[in-house]
Amino acid sequence: MSGTPIEKMSGRGVYVAGNDIDTDRIIPARYLTCVTFDELGPALFYDVRFNEDGSSKDHILDDPRHAGAEILISDDNFGCGSSREHAPQAILRFGLKAVIADSFAEIFHGNCTTLGVPCVVMAFEERKELAELVGADPTLDIIIDLEHLQVICANKVFKISVKDSVREAFLNATYDPLDTLLAGRDAIDAVAARLGYSAIP
Amino acid sequence: MGKNLYQKVWDNHVVQQLDTGQYQLFIALHLIHEVTSPQAFGMLEDKKLKVAYPKRTFATVDHIIPTDSQVRPLADDMAEKMIQVLSDSTRAHGIEFFAPASGAQGIVHVVGPELGLTQPGMTICCGDSHTSTHGAFGCISLGIGTSQVRDVLASQTLAMDPLKVRRIRVEGQLQPGVTAKDVILHIIHILGVNGGVGFAYEYAGSVIDNMSMEERMTVCNMSIEGGARCGYVNPDATTYEYLRGRERVPGGDQFDQAVERWQGYASDFDAQYDDEVVIDANDIRPTVTWGVTPGQAISIEENLPDPDKVDGLERNLITDALDYMQLTGNQPIKGTKIDVAFIGSCTNGRLSDFQAVASVIKGRKVALHVRAIAVPGSEKVDKEVRKLGLHKVFEEAGFEWRLPGCSMCLAMNPDKLIGDEVCASSSNRNFIGRQGSPTGRTILMSPVMVAAAAIEGQVADAREVFNFTGEVA
């Protein structure tokens, strides 16, 4: 399904600190027993947000000042570990629509892109400044501009980087590639025939 | 100028370049399981799409299947439902399903190779990050998300950017008691948990050349823990001998022709790489993790890192990890008390892993306070172990011998840590909460090191416990 082009988006931010935040932390494995992704929003970062008895650990995602935040900010190597698409699905269904970090793990990055959730890379010093701005004033609006590869917040411009092919996919609405892939059906069949891949004996 | 294996296999499977600049890549083998794939069938049905190449997808169950009893219906209703959805969907779409008790069920990355579905020169994907395991045969093998599982079911292709290739040469000879698991933990420690982002890892050098296929699978399996989505070893005589006679591998003249084709995929002697790292085998010791990422590892001879000796972010990372693990900096890791010992998983749940352990635990006993479980990676592994009577060796030593599945590697099934238990584990991830308890603590190590820890009741040096003086059995 090709969606609508994603050139620019804006929303308030929330900074979840930590390097190497893995997808087990983003969504613990016990929430993977599901046959659809619909109910995953409340399980986002569950064990970081709640004690085993269900009481709140007063995590920043549950801080009323950040209620309604739509842009997640984190540190280095965000989304490492398991390939579970449940992680970006939980992020999306929680109400977050983009992630800004120093770097991303590859499978997570790909899963986010397909769902139309931009993974935006920002250099450490700038990303740190952005997190501090948002921490001090959670009402600040963050504008992510994929066309001009910049983030604007509190009248400051932050440079960002997004992989060329991913940026292109957001701008021309092909981040969900299925229709494009299916359009190549004849070429697919030709490759399958050349490689003798019609069936496995 | 020659090409490396990654480039050859990539070129062979490219369908076309897409407008975004990405490539459409044909997938030779698609493996699916009950946790990340049922949703993809729902997506297909929503769009009224069919499976394009049903004979190129194979299904099994591994993540949620219990290892104590697999009697259906399972006690967990949702687990039962996920297996049922997979079973129904595969039947409706004409996909072969290796169901429990079929004789072929097991962890997806154990099943593919042992049946001979995994073959050199293939592009392989699965909704599981440890798909990198199959690279041991000289494949481009990639973990993917559920939407991509949908893409492969519907089109047998993926939209991909090509990766760069880093050759990692491990040269020299491993010391007695040092295993494939130690090699990969050492590599991840050196290159970092995100050092491989954007790269495929080509493992090479005399140590890799001398490894068995099962050892190569252990190494490739954990590529993703170093950030590399894909890791591979060039196919050679060891690869072909492993594949000869396997159920899904052609026989007779066709096998010889296949070998000729497979040989052509190996990296050329003058192939170019984007990066190269050389590791001296002599530097590798039995290695264990101490923190909450697979890169936070030290040799069994070393002391834990001292946060007071580093600054800034690094200091915070070390302090947080030590706090979570309830360990003190600058102390030995050896002697850390354990509660649970787990041998199994797609990293170390194959026949040779259990043979290596059986050969050292015979006549010994697991410490009284330790809960020890050994979980075969597949029904075939279980059958082989039983044929050799090795399950009895485990049971007599005080291990429970379980039914095949992912078990305590990710605890999506009843096998879980309780509270802040410490687990000596042959699996692949020591993330916070990974083994089923939000406060559980995991120490990754090789199967023989888990055995040593189980017997001593604390993290121990297998070389001392088992008097290794020569090659590990």
User: Looking at CATH, which topology of the largest domain in chain B would you report?
Assistant: Aconitase, domain 3
- Biggest interface: chains and residue counts? A-B, 61 and 75 residues
Please indicate the count of domains of chain A: 1
Kindly report the average pLDDT value of chain A.
Answer: 95
Low-confidence stretches of chain A: none
Would you tell me which CATH topology of chain A applies? Aconitase, domain 4
Which structural class best describes the helix and strand composition of chain A? alpha/beta
Class from helix and strand fractions of chain B: alpha/beta
CATH architectural label of the largest domain in chain B: 2-Layer Sandwich
- How many domains make up the 3D coordinates of chain B? 2
Output the radius of gyration of chain B: 21 Å
CATH first level of the largest domain in chain B: Alpha Beta
- In CATH, what is the homologous superfamily of the largest domain in chain B? Aconitase, domain 3
> How do the strands line up in the largest sheet of chain A?
4-3-2-1-5-6-7
Question: Which geometry of chain A do the CA atoms define?
Answer: globular
Q: Which range does the strand content of chain A fall in?
A: 15-25%
What is the percentage of strand-forming residues of chain B? 15-25%
The helix content of chain A, as a percent range, equals 25-40%
Tell me which CATH architecture of chain A applies here: Alpha-Beta Barrel
